[in-house]
Structure formats: C-alpha cells, structure tokens
Amino acid sequence: MRDDQEARLRLAHRLAALRAERDWPLDELARRTGVSRSTLSRLERAEISPTAVQLARVCAAFGRTAAQVLAEVEDGAPRPVRAGRQSVRSDDEAGAVRRSVSPPGPGLRGEIAEHVLRPGAEVVCEAPRVPGVEQHVWVLEGVVEVAAAGGAHVLRAGDCLRFRLWGRSRVRCPGPEPARYALFTVLP
Predict the structure, then answer these.
(1) At what angle do helices 37-44 and 52-61 cross, to 10 degrees?
(2) Residue 20: what pLDDT?
(3) Which single residue of 9, 123, 136, 169 could bond 148 by disulfide (Cβ 3.0 to 4.6 Å)?
(4) For residue 150, is it left (φ>0), alpha (ψ between -120 and 50) or beta?
(5) In the prediction, which pLDDT does 187 show?
(6) Do the beta carbons of residue 171 and residue 181 sit within 8 Å?
(7) pLDDT of 1 above 60
(8) Cα 37 vs. chain centroid, distance in angstroms?
(9) Whole-number pLDDT of residue 76
(10) Which residues lie below 8 Å from residue 98, measured CB to CB, with a gap of 6+?
(11) What values do phi and psi take at 40, rounded to 5?
C-alpha cells in the first residue's frame, strides 16, 4: 500500500472513531458540518481524501483542529525509550523522584511514569492538567495512600487503583519503607 493510501486510511478510521465515540449517525455529522452524508461516508471508507475545508469542518464538529486530528494519525515507527534517556525529576526536599518511562507523543493519549517516595513523602496535585484524565496507580514496592476522586485507599505491592481525576489528588508513602509505583495516565 502506498504511503498516501495508508495516511488516508488512518485518517478515515480516526474520523469514523470520533463519530462513533459520540454515537452520531452520519446524518447528525452532516447536519453539524454542512458536508453531505455521502461525502462523509466516502471519507470514512477512505474512498476519497477530504478537502481542507471539509476536514476543518469535520474536525471542528469534534471539538478539534485539523492539525490535532492529523497529529493523532501521524505515522511514526515506534521507537524504544532507553532507560538512560528517560527524563528523571528529583525533589530531594519533598522526598520524591519521578521518571517518565514513556513520554507522551503527538496524537498519543497515554503515558507511564515511575514514582519513588521516601517514608512520609507525598505528591499532591491540586488539579489535573486535563479534567477527567484517567489514572491507574500500580504499586510496585512498599505501601502508598491514595486520596483521589472522593475516595481514600491504602495500596500495597501489586495493588492497582483506577479512577478519573477531576480535582485534587494525593499519593503518600506512610513508611516505614520507601514506596515505588507506576502511574499510568490516559487523556480523555
């Protein structure tokens, strides 16, 4: 398959997925965009490529710019992120270390970070960067207390907590040993 055909196919699948996420029939998307139902159908089947105007209208109906949607379908061969190249942020005063295991990339919605907390240390987030972000806290070693999404939980090695974050959150290591956990973040 040629590169332009692959790109058109990836874009078609993404546009169809965005419509399906909203549970809109083609008629509803046509009403919102001013693009005919038959044209939208052909776009989603990758039979045609959208004009710049059509793409802008369709993306706007989904609350995105054309550049955002194109970045979501950007072709890039996966590349490993070697341990020595992962970003590490240390806050010695707070007793916390954060390592970005899989830094986010254009169009990708998930990332993994490893956190290490010394006994008594805590990480507080007053508000998420993106309201409604999905998070998974998976404890690898030690014990952590997690207060988020209206609940408080004590997690031990192997335990995992999954939630959507709309407001303040706190992860604390009660000790007596340090705690290490993975934080998986998935943007809505």
Answers:
(1) 90
(2) 87
(3) 169
(4) left
(5) 80
(6) yes
(7) no
(8) 31
(9) 62
(10) 88, 89, 90, 113, 114, 115
(11) -60, -40
At residue 186, the pLDDT reads: 87
How much is the pLDDT for 114? Answer: 95
Calculate the dihedral angle through the C-alpha atoms of 13, 19, 21, 25, rounding to the nearest 10 degrees: -130
Do residues 44 and 8 lie in contact, with contact meaning Cβ atoms separated by under 8 Å?
Answer: no
Query: Taking the model in full, what pTM does it have?
Result: 0.64
Token pair belonging to 117: 């907390």
Establish whether the linkage from the previous residue to 128 is cis, with ω within 30° of 0. no
Q: What is the pLDDT, as a whole number, of residue 165?
A: 92
The answer for residues whose C-beta is within 8 angstroms of residue 104's C-beta and 6 or more apart is 110, 111
Mean pLDDT for 127-150 is: 92
pLDDT number for residue 115: 95
Task: Provide the token pair at 64.
Answer: 């995105």
Q: How confident is the model at residue 127 (pLDDT cuts 50, 70, 90)?
A: confident
Rounded CA-CA distance 120/172 in Å is 7
What's the CA gap between 157 and 8, in Å, rounded?
Answer: 45
Phi-psi region of 9 (alpha: psi -120 to 50; beta: other; left: phi over 0): alpha
CB 48 within 8 A of CB 37: no
DSSP alpha helix (H) spans, the chain? 3-22, 26-33, 37-44, 52-61, 66-72
